[in-house]
Specification:
Chain lengths: 662, 143
């Protein structure tokens, strides 16, 4: 009964989404605003139905209804409750439902926070979002219904993929999807503006906070994913240039470019057409990511579901959405372009360079991800493009980006003098080179050039960001008052840029200084790396709720003092009889100690993996700082004022005047 | 105008570099049959894939070196690897290995990948098996 209710709710959600996207079209033709206004309640009803469907699927998991195919495939009576809930989005069908739910959630958020927008524009945005929703509901109902029944019903479920039975996987997909799907908001704003043929400063002011919120979620999702891969996949890597990671990274690069170009559009009115194009690209890459992950075309650890019909559907949907958006752009770009002029030497130019670099970086990731697929499709052989490609293209781009990042915030809008900047930047340049050299020598690493480059550029970003802060605070009478009065937008930028520096330090030092050893250890054996002595005292049996574990014990000491007790496990999940390595990690601010069990080698000896990974936490710390920067930026006073006005609806007439139809 | 020129040149340069980098870092995939036929280059990094031949997995005493045979049901190839094998490595399982061919014809792997799903076959391996089966029929019509 519950699954049927869910299925029914899903169909109703499809119908309301169709209403939501079609009614404004009808209303637009008849020029009757009150008909169009029906899109708003339709959007809210759609959310309610989708939420109901999601609740039904969750109930099926919690109540262990193994007569539902999706539940029987991805759950098991021995599965703990919290994993039964997260199993809802553990595989293809459920993750799509989560996608659709998040999409309708964003739509509802837009209906609540956009009362202040002119009705015509607001309704168009909601209609575009409705059209995307229709695509996803159709996809689910036609190719991947999470509620389809299994007849006869299974007595016992198949179990959730053991890799996904983990805390990180409870959080990672919802976060990532919030970001992925969130990019639909700037996309819909862009498409709505193109339809209307008008784009004014109010447009950017509205789009910017939404983009930043989506970007924050995307940043958190990717950071969580990297952290999860590090501790769960059992070999301590934090980024693999795996196609699925790339699928989330490309929209992130685009969204980062979009945030910066929105800054120019908002402050100076320039780059408007470019900003619209970026908004289209960012969401297109989100859809492409879904296609890559969900169609199974990729050779990837993530390709759980492989079904060509699904792939074809998403590909057609992708072509339709991206194609029509781009055609619309081609027709209307002229109408939305133009804006503030600027000098060659200005902050606009530097932000333009930032944009070009980020887009080129995203394009190079796209090339490396799609190239093997294209060659394969044309029958030119099976190839794979590994991390060396991505590293050799990406690292130089990032270094240039970091150099520009340092200069940008110190440069003036519109026109600046190179001499002023040269004087200003002298000290950060000297300081970062000195700091880089001193830290490199102190780190005593191999691969000197890479470490030097990484540290100098990180120091450069930190020094110039600090300088920009000082310059800003200097405008006030006292430094303290200056600090307290800083606009949140500026603080956010500072924090996010420092996050980039922290991440670069983490990546550089982890890559250069890590010690990774695969060893054969018998009980009582010791092995020393980086001054830490690892003593292996054997492996014992240890039962778990739905698995059997062999639990190793390793004591780590440093100069005779015990630092950590590590208990790496080798688990055998009973229902799927799949083995899993559960690494043991002693985390630290400046280093992680990492141990994982390999195979049993006989006579009590085991293959054991022991790592010393300096500064690896800084990578995720950097990601968190970037996200924090984003959060600070959206809580800036000017956006809070916007929300307050929303409640008062005081400047509604003003805004609608600005948005008058073209 | 100068500025646009600089950007266009920069992007063109980046694209050229990207294509060069992709050409240098492309890893071709070969099946055991292709390796036996001498289609695979020696001493260059490449990828091979196939099924781990049951009973062929042998460990060297006192070290982490493992040797096993990889087969596409037609030809087989000896692979040597030092280190910890992935969780799902087992006999009969389809795997993909990255490494280089030694002059003697043994494949020395730097990395061994087994997919994280026991039902799932790496697509390259599935295709290699299929090709080997067809090729086997064509070249040995008496079977």
């Amino acid at each position: 009964m519950i699954p049927e209710l869910g299925h029914f709710a899903l169909i109703l959600a499809l119908l309301t989404a169709a209403t939501q996207s079609l009614i404004p079209l009808f209303g637009g033709l008849k020029r009757t605003a009150n008909v169009s206004a029906a899109a708003v309640p339709a959007a809210r009803a759609q959310f309610v139905f989708c939420l109901l469907a999601f609740a039904c699927l969750t109930a099926a998991f919690v109540l262990q209804d193994f007569s539902v195919t999706y539940v029987a495939t991805n759950s098991n009576s021995a599965l703990p409750l919290h994993y039964r809930v997260s199993a809802v989005w553990g595989a293809h069908e459920g993750s799509l439902l989560l996608w659709a739910l998040i999409l309708s959630g964003w739509t509802v958020a837009v209906t609540f926070f956009s009362r202040n927008l002119p009705d015509v524009f607001r309704v168009r945005v909601i209609a575009v979002m409705g059209a995307i929703s229709v695509g996803f509901y159709l996809f689910m109902l036609l190719t991947s219904n999470p509620f389809s029944r299994l007849l006869p019903s299974a007595v016992e479920g198949n179990d959730l993929n053991p890799l996904l039975q983990d805390f990180g996987l409870i959080l990672h997909p919802p976060m990532l999807y919030m970001g992925y799907v969130g990019l639909v908001v700037p996309f819909s704003f862009a498409v709505a503006a193109l339809i209307g043929g008008r784009l004014d400063p109010a447009w950017t002011r509205w789009t910017r906070p939404w983009t930043v919120v989506a970007w924050v979620f995307l940043t958190l999702g990717i950071t969580l994913g990297s952290w999860w891969a590090y501790y769960e996949l059992g070999w301590g890597g934090w980024w693999f240039w795996d196609p699925v990671e790339n699928a989330s990274f490309m929209p992130w690069l685009m969204a980062t470019a979009l945030i910066h170009s929105l800054a120019v559009s908002e402050q100076r009115g320039a780059f408007k057409a470019w900003t619209v194009l970026l908004a289209i690209f960012a969401f297109s890459l989100s859809l492409l990511g879904t296609f890559l992950v969900r169609s199974g075309v990729l050779v990837s650890v993530h390709a759980f579901a492989t079904d060509p019909a699904r792939g074809l559907f998403i590909l057609m949907f992708l072509a339709l959405v991206v194609g029509s958006a781009l055609v619309l752009f081609a027709l209307r770009a002229q109408a939305v372009s133009g804006g503030g002029r600027f000098d060659l030497f200005s902050r606009e130019t530097l932000l333009l360079i930032n944009n070009v670099l980020l887009v080129v970086a995203a394009a190079s990731v796209l090339l490396g991800t799609l190239y093997p697929l294209i060659l394969d499709a044309m029958g030119l052989g099976k190839i794979s493009v590994g991390p060396p490609y991505f590293n050799s293209v990406f690292v130089p781009l990032v270094l240039v980006l970091l150099a520009v990042l340092g200069i940008g915030p110190l440069t003036r809008w519109k026109k600046d003098r190179s001499r002023r900047l040269a004087t200003l930047l002298r000290w950060p340049l000297i300081a970062s080179i000195v700091a880089g050299v001193v830290l490199t020598v102190a780190s005593d690493a191999e691969g000197l050039a890479a470490v030097l480059a990484g540290l100098v550029f990180a120091a450069w970003v930190a020094a110039t960001t600090a300088l920009a802060l000082v310059e800003r605070v200097k405008l006030r009478t006292s430094p303290l008052a200056g600090l307290l009065r800083l606009p949140r937008g500026f603080t956010g930028m500072t924090v996010a840029h420092l996050g980039a520096a922290v991440m670069v330090v983490g990546i550089t030092l982890t890559t250069a200084l890590s010690t990774e050893k695969d060893l054969r250890l018998s009980p009582g054996d010791t092995y020393a790396i980086a001054g830490y002595e690892f003593r292996f005292s054997g492996v014992r049996q240890s039962p778990g709720p739905n698995y059997r574990a062999q639990r190793g014990h390793i004591e780590v000491t440093r100069s005779g003092k015990t630092i950590a007790q590590l208990f790496p496990e080798k688990r055998l999940y009973l229902n799927s009889s799949s083995p899993m390595t559960e690494a043991a990690i002693d985390p630290g601010f400046t280093r992680d100690l990492y141990a994982a069990l390999g195979d049993e080698l006989g006579d009590g000896a085991w293959a054991v993996r022991i790592y010393h990974k300096p500064f690896v936490r800084w990578i995720w710390l950097g990601g968190l700082l970037m996200a924090l920067g984003g959060i600070l930026a959206v809580t800036d006073r000017r956006y809070r004022i916007m929300v307050r006005n929303e409640r008062g609806r005081s400047d509604r007439a003003l805004a609608s005047g600005a948005f008058a139809e073209g | 105008m100068i500025f646009v020129g600089v950007i266009v040149t920069g992007v063109a340069l980046a694209a050229t570099l990207a294509f060069i980098a992709i050409g240098e870092n492309m890893l071709y995939f070969f099946s055991p049959t292709q390796v036996k036929n001498g289609e695979a280059p020696r001493e260059r990094t490449l990828r091979v894939g196939g099924l781990v031949v049951p009973g062929s997995v042998a460990r060297e005493q006192g070290s982490l070196t493992v040797q096993f045979d990889l087969s596409d049901n037609r030809e087989s190839l000896t692979v040597k690897y030092t280190g910890i094998l992935p969780d799902l490595f087992r006999e009969g399982q389809g795997i993909v290995a990255t490494g280089a061919l030694e002059p003697g014809g043994t494949f020395v792997a730097e990395e061994v990948l087994a997919k994280h799903d026991e039902k799932y076959m790496p697509p390259e391996v599935a295709e290699a098996l299929e090709l080997a089966e067809q090729g086997g029929r064509m070249s040995n019509p008496q079977e």
